[in-house]
Amino acid sequence: MLVSIFKTTKILFLGTILLIGTASSCQSNKTDGSKTHKQNISPRTDSLSYRDTSIMQISPYFAENDGNADTTYAKITYPIFSDSAMNNIVKANILLDGEPSIEVYLGNFIESYGNFIEENNVKYNLAWDKETILRVELNSPDLIMLNSSTYEFSGGAHGNSFTIWSVYDVHNYEKLELNTFISENKMKEFTKIAERFFRREEGLADTASLEDEYFFENDEFALAANYGISKEGIIFYYNSYEIKPYAAGPTYLSIPYEDIQDCMTQTGKNYITKLNEYYNSIQ
Prior knowledge:
- By secondary structure, the protein is α+β, with helices and mostly antiparallel strands.
- It folds into 2 domains: 12-169, Heat Shock Protein 90, CATH 3.30.565; 178-281, Actin, Chain A, domain 4.
- It contains 5 helices and 9 strands, in the order H-E-E-E-H-H-E-E-E-H-E-E-E-H.
- It has helices at 12-18, 84-94, 102-119, 187-202, 266-281; strands at residues 29-36, 50-65, 68-81, 129-139, 143-153, 160-169, 226-229, 233-238, 251-256.
- The strands form 2 sheets. It has a 6-stranded mixed beta sheet, with helices on both faces.
- The longest helix is centred in the middle third of the chain and has 18 residues, at 102-119.
- The radius of gyration is 23 Å and the shape is flat.
């Protein structure tokens, strides 16, 4: 059994960890590193350039057992663009609860752990951890897609994770909803096509019930709120617990463009045509 010893003074363990970092704070221990993201850009394109950076905050409380130590931490990895407007969009996709900064976003988790320790008589405890990774999934001269994934463990049987996808028009920084690509009056037809692919991926017959194995309301298939764009088709991501038990994990679904041409808007078709042109130009 892990025996926890919690201290608020400086300790050798935390000092060792901080050797890895490049920045520190009197209130929390932070590390900040970055690396350049390689761009494959042909002369005829102008997709947005960026570099990835990471920031970590570490709790002063730690657990020790037989010489092994562990501590609570919060970490985020995200892109920094040369375009300031895109950086604002990145932060908006991270600071979902209205935090004023990324440092506060991380610090809130560290503070919650400290409050938990200070307000409870904890004899045995596990370190908490939270990690957010925001990736650029698609980067073209017209469209950019962000993928924000967070894993959090704050006690209990297991941690929890969730992913949020967002698609933007690069020219006006507008977030694009699914109806940008799929006509509203064709959404029911599109959903039926998506269900066909879902059943195929899940190994279900066309008439098989969804009631026992899935969490769809009224036993009716529904599209995930998380949609994205790929070179091949429109994609959907169901987070854990959304349509299946935690043990089953998340579900990924792809609908090829060639199967949904009659459901797409002209605007959507134009986006995809330009997307294909871009990728063909850099191959």
